[in-house]
Design goal:
By secondary structure, the protein is of the alpha/beta class. The protein folds into 6 domains: about 120 residues, RuvA domain 2-like (Arc Repressor Mutant, subunit A), CATH 1.10.10; about 190 residues, Tex N-terminal region-like (Orthogonal Bundle); about 120 residues, YqgF/RNase H-like domain (Nucleotidyltransferase, domain 5, 2-Layer Sandwich); about 70 residues, DNA polymerase, domain 1 (Orthogonal Bundle), CATH 1.10.150.310; about 60 residues, Tex RuvX-like domain-like (DNA polymerase, domain 1), CATH 1.10.150; about 70 residues, Nucleic acid-binding proteins (OB fold (Dihydrolipoamide Acetyltransferase, E2P)). About 50% of the residues lie in helices and about 10% in strands. It has 30 helices and 15 strands. A 5-stranded mixed beta sheet has the order 6-5-4-7-8, with helices on both faces. Strands 11-12-13-15-14 form a 5-stranded mixed β-barrel. Strand 12 and strand 13 form a beta hairpin. Helix 9 packs across helix 12, helix 13 crosses helix 16 and helix 14 packs across helix 16. The N terminus is likely disordered.
Length: about 725
């Protein structure tokens, strides 16, 4: 019966109903989405090219269906294990099997399973082995006037006294209380209402340097339901480092009394023994179990929020405005070791590199200026990217002075985030790209390429190393990787990829590809030259029709014979565009170039059972701006020249800044003093702000007011309010 149910062909309908109820989505659209996922379709492909089947779900909705579908399949596997275990014990009944099969809540499922779950040898188990379960049942009836006398009948074998028999019976009752679903739910409800999370410093660690970063939590208490993600993760990190002791507590006295009212009936010796057993069951077994459960649930909730913040930040960073294909000079600034300078062509290939020493202690500004001028002229540099790390401000000032000296007004200067550049420069990927160069050259190349195309460069770096997260090393690493991989995949496919210039790493994230096919595309390109048509992809080793269907619409081929090959129009829709062009009496190229011809098209004429208005509308939008990059245009930025160190800051100053990180509690802004300042969420706008992403985005240029400067702790408080 179990396996017939679990693998019933109608199971997907059950999944669809549950997901539709949870999300509010149409059940038919959910069912269609599940079918597409089972067929191997990716989230970007489903959201972009299967709108008729999904009711035009966006990527977030499709991803939500996908995640819940996986959770339900995991739950079904858990049911299978539970039913198998209980069956092997010989304890399965039709009613119990039906309860398990009908249960779709993980917590309730574990409650049902708890009495049957194999466990270590407990005090209650020992008492049962000694034959004391009948005595426990007798006590629970609470009718025996003299339980001590009744217990004498159980004094035998390993039970040496009536007192020992009664204690064993109480142990059984205590474990019964712990495993009873109603008891667990009652205590669970109490924790939901009034649980407090408390944090106390470990006295032996209070005065250590590592403890100071947790100073705010040395004596902290607040309702668990109000504890924000960043506070909970901070406390848990302090606990993991042995600095803090963290507890989740409820009103033990009230909870005990509540349970005793459920189990204790009347008065008398038996009732007193049951009351004692219930109190013991709560304190020793049930309360620690529920505390552990709520610790896990609160951590899971905090993880989800932190991962959401990280993914949002990562999306903004990956979709940061690109400079485009221009000849770029990348500068990795430094004092003692000098500045490493590289020159790149418009495709990002390394042409030249050298070190200059414009700053102390070497300090050769004249030689450095001459070198920069020569490189700009020789390699026809159009833009300069300067890393935002050590000596960034000083190097920027030097570069701008050099440009003024040579009157190179057409060369723009940009300060670029270095986060993760050192990770990349020492990575296997960097060694493969530049086997003959050292880490400093690779880092400078990464800085230059980030200016040209942030997305193409940042996909080579582990997202956790990019520096835009909040407690990213403290959250569930599996869930974090899943969310970040989805984010990168979404960004890559929303922008589209030039199949003839994309790196293996960028191609890896294209819908339907992955590492192996990405490498095969690069190998084919190396052997046969640039792709001239999308259909050539089918000649790539192991890239069959299914993979081609998934990836083709996201790969671009500039200057292809068919202009649609450089657009987001999927090859399966080429015939529709050809028919439109034929009906308009022109070629596809002419249709794409002529707005009047496109406006004359009646889309309803092209609706079929497979192709509806959503797809046709997308096609027309793409014909208008084929291969359009959804990212914004890059803007230049300059810090206030009068402010270069944190000691230069004064309360009340108005300064330009760049948003470098966004958290649940506010945004960090670089104002050019080697230390980012915090704009607390309460200072982001004149109105109330719940989510900082409502107001700011990464790399946004903002104006901030200095509120407070703490030189001792190296902290800067900023405001974006108008007053």
């Amino acid at each position: 019966m179990l396996y017939l149910y679990i693998y019933n062909p109608y199971m997907e309908t059950a999944y669809s109903k549950l997901i539709a109820q949870a999300t509010g989505l149409n059940i038919k659209h959910v069912e269609a989405t599940i079918g597409l996922l089972d067929d191997g379709a990716t989230i970007p492909f489903i959201a972009r090219y299967r709108k008729e089947r999904t009711g035009s779900m966006d990527e977030v909705q499709v991803a939500g269906v996908s995640d819940q579908y996986e959770q339900l399949k995991t739950l079904v596997k858990r049911k299978e294990t539970i039913l198998s275990t209980i069956s092997e014990q010989g304890n399965i009944t039709p009613e119990l099997e039906a309860r398990i099969n009908d249960c779709w809540d993980a917590t309730t499922l574990e409650d049902i399973y708890l009495p049957y779950k194999p466990k270590r040898r407990t005090r209650a188990q020992v008492a049962r082995e000694r034959g004391l379960e009948p005595l426990a049942s007798l006590l629970m009836l609470q009718r025996e006037a003299n339980p001590a006398k009744a217990a004498e009948a159980y004094v035998k074998g390993e039970v040496t006294s009536a007192e020992e028999a009664l204690q064993g019976a109480q142990d059984i009752i205590a474990e019964t209380v712990r495993e009873d679903e109603r008891s667990r739910q009652a205590v669970r409800n109490a924790f939901r209402r009034d649980a407090m999370i408390t944090s106390r410093v470990v006295k032996a660690k209070a005065d250590t340097d590592e403890a100071q970063k947790f100073k705010d939590y040395f004596d902290w208490s607040e309702p668990l339901r109000r504890c924000t993600s960043h506070r909970l993760l901070a406390m848990r990190r302090g606990e993991a480092e042995g600095v803090l002791r963290v507890r989740i507590e409820s009103d033990d006295e009230a909870n005990t009394e509540r349970l005793q009212r459920a189990y204790v009936h009347g008065r008398g010796a038996c009732s007193d023994l049951v009351a004692e057993a219930v109190a013991d069951g709560y304190k020793r077994l049930l309360m620690p179990s529920i505390e552990t459960e709520f610790a896990a649930l609160s951590k899971e909730k905090a993880d989800e929020e932190a991962i959401r913040v990280f993914a949002t930040n990562l999306r903004q960073l990956l979709l940061e405005a690109p400079l485009g294909q221009k000849r770029v000079m990348g500068v990795d600034p430094g004092f003692r070791t000098g500045c490493k300078v590289v020159c790149l062509d418009a495709q990002g290939s390394l042409l030249h590199h050298e070190a200059i020493f414009p700053h102390p202690p070497v300090r050769k500004p004249a030689d450095a200026m001459e070198a920069i001028i020569n490189m700009i002229k020789k390699y026809r540099v159009e833009a300069i990217a300067i890393g935002n790390g050590t000596a960034s401000r000083e190097t920027e000032s030097f570069i701008r002075l050099t440009l003024e000296t040579m009157k190179a007004s057409g060369v723009e200067v940009f300060v670029v985030s270095e986060d993760g550049a050192s990770i990349y420069s020492a990575s296997k990927t960097a060694r493969e790209e530049f086997p003959d160069e050292d880490v400093t050259v690779r880092g400078a190349v990464s800085i230059g390429r980030r200016l040209m195309d942030p997305l193409a460069e940042l996909v080579k770096i582990d997202p956790k190393s990019i520096g835009v997260g909040q407690y990213q090393h403290d959250v569930d690493q599996g869930k974090l990787k899943h969310a970040l991989d989805q984010t990168v995949e979404s960004c890559v496919n929303s922008v589209g990829v030039n199949v003839n210039t994309a790196s293996r790493h960028l191609l890896t994230y294209v819908s339907g590809l992955g590492p192996t096919l990405a490498q095969n595309i690069v190998d084919y390109r190396t052997e046969h030259g640039p792709f001239t048509a999308r259909t050539q992809l089918l000649k790539v080793t192991r890239l069959g029709p299914s993979a081609y269907q998934q990836c083709a619409g996201f790969l671009r081929i500039p200057d292809a014979k068919n202009p649609l090959d450089n657009s987001a129009v999927h090859p399966e829709s080429y015939s529709i565009v050809s028919k439109m062009a034929a009906d308009a009496g022109c070629s596809v190229s002419e249709l794409m170039a002529d707005p009047k011809r496109r406006q004359s098209i009646e889309l309803k004429k092209y609706v079929t059972d497979e192709v509806g208005m959503p797809t046709l509308t997308d096609i027309m939008a793409e014909l208008e701006k084929p291969g359009r990059d959804p990212r914004q245009q890059l803007e230049t930025f300059a810090f206030d020249e009068s402010v270069k160190e944190i000691s230069d800051l004064r309360p009340g100053m108005l300064l330009p800044g760049i948003v470098t990180n966004i958290t649940a509690f506010g945004a960090f802004v670089d104002v050019g003093v080697h230390q980012d300042g915090l704009v607390h969420v309460s200072q982001l706008a004149d109105r109330f702000v719940r989510d900082p992403n409502e107001v700011v985005h990464l790399r946004q240029h903002v104006q901030v007011r200095v509120m407070e400067v703490d030189l001792r702790r190296n902290r800067i408080s900023l405001s974006m309010k108008s007053k």
